[in-house]
Amino acid sequence: MDNNVLVTNVQRFSTNDGPGIRTTVFLKGCHLKCPWCHNPECINPYKEFYYLEKNCLKCGHCAEVCPEGAIDFQGVNGEFPKRDRKKCTRCMICVNECPYGALETVGREWTFDELIKEVEADKLFYENSGGGLTVSGGECLDYPEFTAGLLKLAKDAGIHTCLDTSGFAPWKSIEQVLPYTDLVLFDIKCMDSRKHLEATGVSNEIILRNAQKIADATKKMRLRLPIIPGFNDELRHIEEVVKFARELGPAVEGIDLLPFHNWAEGKYKQLDIVYAFAGVGALFPEHVAEFQKIIENNGFEVTIGG
Amino acid sequence: MTCKDCKFFYPVAEGEFDYEQGKGDCVNALQDSKGKYWLVRKAKEDAPSCANFKPNLK
Amino acid sequence: MASAAVLAEIKQEMNLETNEPFGKAIWDKKLKEGPGSTPKTKHLYKRCRWAHTAGGLYVDEEIKISLQRARLYTEAHKANAGEISVIQRAKCLEHYLKNCDLYIQDEEILVGVNSARPATLELYPEGGAANMFDYLEDETLCPPELYDEGVEMVEYWKQWSLSAMCERYVDPEDLRVMSSAVTGETPVWTHFYTNCIPPYQSVLEDGLEKRIEWCEKNIKNAKAKLRQYPWNGEENFPLFEKIDNWTAMIISAKAVIGWARRYSRLARIIAEDFDLSDSVSGANQRKKELLEVADICYNVPAKPARGLKDAMQSKWFCYMIVQNIERYSSGYSQLEDDLLWPYYKRSVIDKTGQPMTRAEAIELIECERLKVCERTVTKGRWMRIIHPGINDLHILSIGGLDENGNDMSTDLTDAILEAALNIHTNEPSIAFKYSPKINEKTRRLVYECVSQGYGFPSIKHHERNTKHSIEKHDWPPEVAARWALVLCMAPGATGRYSTQHSRNEGGGGIDGPNQGLLALWDGYDDWFSKSQVGVHTGDASKFTWEELLKAVRTQIENSAQLMFMNKEITSYAEGKRLESPFLAIMDDWNVEEGVGAYERYNKPYTNTWSSYYPGPLAIADDLTAIKYWIFDKKKYTMAQLLEALKANWNGYEEMRQEFLSAPKFGNDDDYADEIARWVFDTSTDVWETVKMLGAPKGVQHIAQSVSAFVTRGPMVGAEPFGRRHGEPTHDGGVSPYMGLDKKGPTAVLKSVSKLPHDRMKGNQLNQRLPVGLMRESEKGFDVWTAYMKTWHDLGIDHVQFNVVRTEDMRAAQKEPEKWDHLIVRIAGYSARFISLSKLAQDSIISRTVQELG
Fold first, then answer.
1. How many domains does chain B have?
2. Does A253 have pLDDT greater than 70?
3. Which of B20, B29, B35 sits opposite C274 (nearest CB)?
4. Same domain for A221 and A258?
5. Which pLDDT does position C847 carry in this prediction?
6. Is A32 within a domain?
């Protein structure tokens, strides 16, 4: 069994991670380092903490209790405490000590019992909407036993299941999970492997191979295309993906365009991470209308926003 | 000149609900910051004419 | 899945050629062109005289009081001194309608006003001194030359007013408690606020002339009965009073016909003698319109409505009289699509009476919406304060199923919704009687209105509410099915017969949160009134859990008792002093029986209800936090908690954080939800135990907040669940506290579904849904439909939605002039965001939204 699997969020009424009204379980940890990532708190596989400036009363207590001296607080000029995350050993003493709830742990272990209870709570909504459970991340395939176990529990309870993945995983892991998966949501970031490596830190060769294998296993899948300004918001990319999708064959049920948005900016700030896309405007449906048309013309069902 | 002689004075016919001897309707077009409206007020026939007075040429 | 054909049909009807999501396309179109489907309604929207108040003040500074109504009523009251009260009331109405000023505004096709000038407020001296002084003493509202005359009137009415009469029956100590506003709404007679459902059908179908004949026949028959040998005192004695009532009805109905015909004359004079060249419709067209108005106002309400134009005008005249002139009464209650359907069908579909196109009908409905926005209202400051961003609570109802379960919505239902989409006003709010059985097109239009961020339609569970009225009010199924909301939340019977006429029958309420707090402080309120307003329930620092619950129940019983007593006192007094003979002649039961409008003895379809507002969830969250930390975890004692609360949590921040982190209602957590269930069951037990006149099954119980959740902040002390004194309270009847529902809208529905909806008449639930999903995505309707299906399956009473971006609200705070179109749902109604106080704005912003990544 996978050890120490951390869940960052169990999001009920999730409407962008597969069909209908769903509950999405986000697992913590991912090998890709996409600078536009919408869930930066899901990248590192260990516990971290958010700093919520709106709750901070600048009492300086966090600096006092930090055993590593990783928090700097001078108490002058109305400045807020500053954290040096490199020095931080994530002992979480400051989080536990903050009297104002300005520090908040992100990532905790959930038992299967807890998770499935939370997932089953919205069963009525799934039935009425064609929704269900989505396991996402981070990269949930980093924890194949855990993911498979959770998906199986849901299937046993008669709940529709989705796997939301970057595709960057050993086939062995995917094999473990597929029997309990009704629909795979498969991210395609770019078709050029060098460019993929530069942007995300990994090559896309394994990813594309896995896509083909999943399709060959006649698993239903949707390709999910994050459209990132300056990276892949170009016609050529879409044309390449469409070509690839045709090669994948009838397993591809549709393609979801996910236009870049900057809602994650706040989370970057709370994690003290520099956001590479600060100030970059969000893309709106009209920006991807042309892409939508191309995909449609090639006979694929397409959505904007999933 | 009294109200009775004014263009904006309208006698109320006998038998109408609001008929009252010696009284009639004074109807004016008015304007304020929002828009225009037409107002009817009760006026006495023999009341001295006001600034809005216009001779009745009908 | 959503039908593409349905969407295409709506787009075609609304002239919207676009591939974008419908909600976004229509939003953008309105921003570009301004609201309104025709040049007329575009113009009327631009020059609309919004009569909204905020913080109890009128937003438009040009609004002033006029004493015209008060003066004419006082004159007639004096002239008819000693007359039987109901006839005296009819004479007052007659005198007013004969002599009041009237006006018609540019471009109007629906006419009839309740004020001497646009932007003036009329007063009701017969209510009592408090309201009169409220307006007279306000220099921003009272022109100095009116002050002395107004004071003189107050002096005269001192002996005749409703409040003077009611005070006789109340112990001064109780009066002090009720006036403190801590335990609940202050008595009706202090703020002169009421509500009713006018039985419009009778006038639209019969015309007043026929109803006058009916009264005359009744008088004739009664007199013949008196002459019948042998004399029977038992039977004959009541006839005297009935004859008085019928006489008063006749006087008032004749006066209303005469008053409508004064409009007819005015419209003809304007058409024939005045310059109309600046009309947006052109002089010739405008002249034609005015001549048609003249024809309509001659015909109705005297005669039956010939088509939609007559029906709409006849209804408006009746509304003006019943809820603005004869008395002030809040609301715009009606089942509008059911009421107007025969006339819509005749004019728009069959073209057999007053033929018109569908687009013209929609224009007329848009005009009606604007007319409601301009209605000037004078009610006590207490009520103005809790109704920010509107002029009054105006809520009409549509939709629903008939007694056989068939969809009652029609093309008119759709036209009403399309008009609301076009004209973009917050008023009147629309309540939709929801069932999944209702056709997709109508449900789609409901959805599109919601997605515009209107906050309406506010959605009520049709079947649940119908069943409740059958079981608890004993209404026949065909009556129970045709309910409309009286104000925000309570269904009432519509039709011709025995509708609700007064707030004393149904309305009013006690405060939720304070009942719990009074149990902690032995009935003493140290935060607002600094006095003993509850009963002595003992020193809470020594309470066991069971003793605490008992004390809460005792406080609820005591506050509720004062409310019920006061409702019946006021009901008695308004029957003696404030009869409304015109309202009576509209109602078949009153005409048949010869009884006054406020009679409640033997009334067939009584609608006896009252509320908690704000709702009682605060008690639940308070008790939950106490149980969790004090009785289960035993980390704190009651004494420590009382100390922290006394300090308003100052110096106890860590403890406050812990109490805030205790389980909360709204997260699908049985620990908190079961305590909430106890609070609701206990309260409903109290309501059901009470036997008001004509309510053998007890008073029906509603939890709602209107917008009292903000304005009552200062009246509710520090709370155990972590709220500080002054902060807003729970914002709905059953809505979780803002920001404390951490698990999103599905978990909220699950929690809410655990409350005893079947036992209650209403439970107000506010939800916020993301703009991106609702207005800007193609799948919004499908997701929402599934959500609503589940809501319906769970048997939840009500839900209403805010669909608004936090950034937009922030931008509107900075540049209000650019955001006059921004509408938000407050509680029982929708408000223009820019008309709200900063505090109200902030608290709406801080409500949770599940922004979806």
1. 1
2. yes
3. B29
4. yes
5. 58
6. yes
Q: What does the pLDDT read at residue A1?
A: 64
Please tell me whether residues A275 and A144 are part of one structural domain.
Answer: yes
Which CATH number goes with the domain that contains A163? 3.20.20.70
Q: State how far residue C206 is from chain B, nearest Cα, in angstroms.
A: 21
Contacts of C790 in chain A (CB under 8 A): 124-125, 128-129
Q: Are C665 and C624 in contact (CB under 8 A)?
A: yes
Question: Does B have 3 or more CB contacts under 8 Å with A?
Answer: no
| pLDDT (mean) for C310-325 | 98
The mean per-residue pLDDT over the stretch A222-230 comes to: 95
Domain count, chain A: 2
Average pLDDT over residues C144-157: 97
Residue A210 falls inside a structural domain: yes
- Rounded to the nearest integer, the mean pLDDT of chain C is 94
Q: Is the Cβ of B16 closer than 8 Å to some Cβ of chain C?
A: yes
Share of chain C above pLDDT 90, in %: 81
Say if C255 is an interface residue toward chain B (CB within 8 Å). yes
Q: Which of C378-382, C674-678, C788-792 has the lowest mean pLDDT?
A: C378-382
Q: What angle do CA C822, C825, C826 make, to 5 degrees?
A: 115
Chain A residues near residue C793 by CB distance under 8 angstroms: 124, 128
From B18, B36, B39, residue closest to C106, measured CB to CB? B36
Confidence of residue C851 (pLDDT cuts 50, 70, 90): very low
Average pLDDT score over residue span A106-120: 96
A259 falls within a domain: yes
CB pair distance less than 8 Å for C270 and B17: no
- Give the chains touching B; criterion: ≥3 Cβ pairs < 8 Å: C
Of A106, A121, A136, the residue at which a domain comes to its end is: A106
pTM above 0.80, yes or no: yes
Q: How far is CA C360 from CA C40, C43, C110, C196, C428, in A?
A: 11, 16, 13, 30, 19
Q: Are residues A160 and A253 in the same domain?
A: yes
The answer to whether residue A1 is domain-embedded is: no
Q: Are residues A35 and A123 in the same domain?
A: yes
Q: Where are the beta strands (DSSP E) in B1-58?
A: 9-11, 23-31, 36-44
pLDDT at A9: 93
The full DSSP string for C744-769 is HHHHHHHHHHTS-GGG-SEE--EEE-
Same domain, A79 and A174: no
Could you report the per-residue pLDDT of C716-759, keeping only the tens digit for each?
Answer: 999 999 999 988 888 878 999 888 888 888 999 999 999 999 99
In a domain, B49, yes or no: no
Domain CATH for A101: 3.30.70.20
CA C72 to CA C63: how far, in whole Å?
Answer: 21
Expressed as residue numbers, the domain containing B25 is 3-44
Which of A63, A80, A106 lies at the terminal end of a domain, its last residue? A106
Same domain, yes or no: A132 and A183: yes
**Co-location of A140 and A261 in the same domain:** yes
For the stretch A196-223, what's the b/e string if a residue is b when 16 or more beta carbons lie within 10 angstroms of its beta carbon?
beebbebebeebbebbeebbeeebbbbb
Residue that is written with structure tokens 């005249």 in the block = C317
Q: Which residues lie closer than 8 Å to C127 by C-beta, 6 or more apart? A: C161, C162, C163, C189, C192, C328
Residues C305, C310, C311, C316, CA torsion sign: negative
Residues of A with CB below 8 A from C787's CB? Answer: 21, 125, 128-129
Kindly report the nearest CA distance between residue C450 and chain A, in angstroms: 18
Per-residue pLDDT at C656: 94
What is the interface size between B and C, counted as CB pairs within 8 Å?
71
Chains that touch A (3 or more CB pairs under 8 A): C
Cβ-Cβ contacts under 8 Å, A288 against chain C: none
Q: Which chains touch C (3 or more CB pairs under 8 A)?
A: A, B
- Whether B17 is in a domain gets the answer yes
Is residue B40 assigned to a domain?
Answer: yes
| Mutate: best of C18, C783, C851, partner A, most A CBs <10 A | C783
CA C165 – CA C579 distance, rounded (Å): 14
For residue C852, the model assigns a pLDDT of 31
| % chain C with pLDDT above 70 | 99
Count of A-C CB contacts under 8 Å? 76
Which segments within A15-101 are labelled E, that is strand?
Answer: 22-27, 48-51, 71-72, 82-83
Check CB contact under 8 Å for A129 and C787: yes
Please state the ipTM of this predicted complex: 0.98
Is A231 found in the same domain as A141? yes
Domain membership of residue A53 as a residue range: 48-106
Residue B35 falls within a domain, yes or no? Answer: yes
